[in-house]
Design a protein that fits this description.
Length: 435
């Protein structure tokens, strides 16, 4: 069966872009199934050029691959237009290679305004109350989708009905912005109609019935990579709610976000960083607020690819990855950024938690925030390896013994084997036996 899902197994930024770009070499399609321009997927090409993609699937740099933005994605016209222009300027062909679902919902200017106003208001009450969103309008756009008020790409075709829907939405949103959020930034119906219809004619060549397209490809035995954005611990249902994103990065999201059946999926690859990071607020059991955390951030360049915010850093948490493995049926792990740990004397892996109130050993992750506030991570400690010990390494077998011990412990604790080990941001800095 032809579909492989590639998803983030922690709190995002695991290196999904790098892994998808690499795997796309052996795929016919790469299809994004959820999220929007909150994502920042970095790809470093063999010539050293680096690109950050927000909406366009990470297969775009493999010339034979067709890229799909599924119905589950929320599309910001401004971001999409910029991204297409950026790729074309770099000599990457996008026409006839990018296909966008006619059912995908659009991010409207008022979604971004509300996202920012909502965060500002929450932050004013108490800085820990704000989610720390990317401000890209993601939550408010999905809110409208589920409240059946959303504007989809297909809706741009009918000007009178678009104007009517927008008028209703904008009346409500302006009221919310001015009365509840005390905002001076309001939206104008005619301006938005004109802007979005101009966008419609630009993207018209890309828009199609992508569910039909993908299901036809599945019947023909084509190989499809379903690319997740964000990650399982940011999932609206299974993440650390309310400190989550507003979609389902978990495996089920690939079916609903692309219109492909569960029976077409035969592989789920979980991308796991060799340590942990998180951007924005919310629980993070293995966070390091000391110089080791600082070191991970500086060596790993842990700054958001979308917002530039410093990422919170800590040791790898096997408890939370066991949980996301279970939820998603992950049958292979792509471990990234192992090289970032090179040169450290000691490396730690969180194997379980201990309840602070009574010392009870906890093996299972929970998204009950009150319970998470009362645990402490228990670590197994590993000896490190030298700063340059990965130079010239082309197989897992050739890695230093201490690194191999750490990898075996990760496999044992998570219960899933490592199919890919990434030792650098470049496409070819990858150990992938059998690929
Ligand atoms: P994504 O959102 O999951 O695609 O990840 P991001 O692109 O936001 O962040 C991952 C960062 O790590 C990017 O800067 C990548 O270029 C980089 N990266 C990916 N894999 C590796 C790796 O194995 N080693 C190192 N040093 N950097 C990596
Ligand atoms: P990629 O695909 C890391 C986080 C935000 C915030 C929460 C909600 O690059 O891994 P949102 O704007 O989605 O409403 O914000 O989710 N977040 C991410 N963190 N990587 C991402 O994407 C993220 N997309 C959203 O920081 O905590
Ligand atoms: Mg990212």
């Amino acid at each position: 069966m032809p579909v492989t899902i590639v998803l983030g197994s922690q709190w995002g930024d695991e290196g999904k872009g790098k892994i998808v770009d690499r795997l796309a070499a052996k795929s016919d399609y790469v299809a994004r199934y959820q999220g929007g321009a909150n994502a920042g997927h970095t790809i470093k090409l063999p010539d050293g050029k680096e690109f950050v993609l927000h909406l366009i699937p990470s297969g775009i740099f493999q010339p034979e691959v067709l890229c799909v933005i599924g119905n589950g994605v929320v599309i910001d016209p401004v971001a999409l237009r910029e991204e297409i222009a950026m790729l074309e300027a770099a000599g990457v062909t996008v026409k006839n290679r990018l296909f966008i679902s006619y059912n995908a919902h659009l991010i409207m200017p008022y979604h971004k305004l509300i996202d920012k106003a909502m965060e500002a208001k929450l932050g004013k009450i108490d800085s820990s109350k704000a989610v720390g969103t990317t401000g890209r309008g993601i939550g408010p756009a999905y809110e409208d989708k589920f409240a059946r008020k959303g504007i989809r790409i297909v809706d741009l075709l009918d000007r009178p009905s678009l104007t009517e829907k927008l008028r209703q939405n904008i009346t409500e949103k302006n009221e919310l912005l001015s009365s509840f959020y005390d905002s001076k930034d309001l939206c104008d119906v005619e301006k938005i109609v004109a802007e979005y219809q101009a966008f419609d004619s630009e993207i018209d060549p890309y828009v199609t019935d992508t569910a039909l397209m993908l299901n036809t490809a599945i019947k023909q035995g084509k190989r499809i990579l379903a690319e997740g954005a964000q990650a399982a611990l940011l999932d609206i249902d299974f993440g650390t709610y309310p400190y989550v994103t507003s979609s389902n990065p978990t495996a089920g999201g690939a079916c609903t976000g692309l219109g492909i059946p569960p029976t077409s999926i035969d592989n789920v690859i979980g991308v796991v960083k060799a340590y942990s990071t998180r951007v924005g607020n919310g629980p993070f059991p293995t966070e390091l607020l000391d110089e080791t955390g600082e070191l991970l951030r500086s060596v790993g360049h842990e700054f958001g690819a979308t917002t530039g915010r410093p990422r919170r850093c800590g040791w790898l948490d096997a408890v939370s990855v066991r949980y996301t493995s279970m939820l998603n049926g992950i049958n292979s792990i792509a471990l990234t950024k192992l090289d970032v740990l090179s040169g450290m004397d000691e490396i730690k892996l969180c194997t379980h938690y201990e309840r602070t109130t009574d010392g009870k050993r906890l093996e299972h992750f929970t998204t009950d925030l009150r319970a998470l506030a009362n645990i402490r991570p228990i670590y197994e400690s590993f000896a490190g390896w030298g700063k340059n010990d990965f130079d010239g390494i082309t197989s897992r077998q050739a890695l230093p013994e201490t690194a191999k011990k750490y990898l075996l412990a990760i496999e044992k604790e998570i219960g899933v084997s490592l199919g890919i080990i990434s030792l650098g941001p470049g496409r070819n800095e990858t150990l992938a036996d059998g690929l």
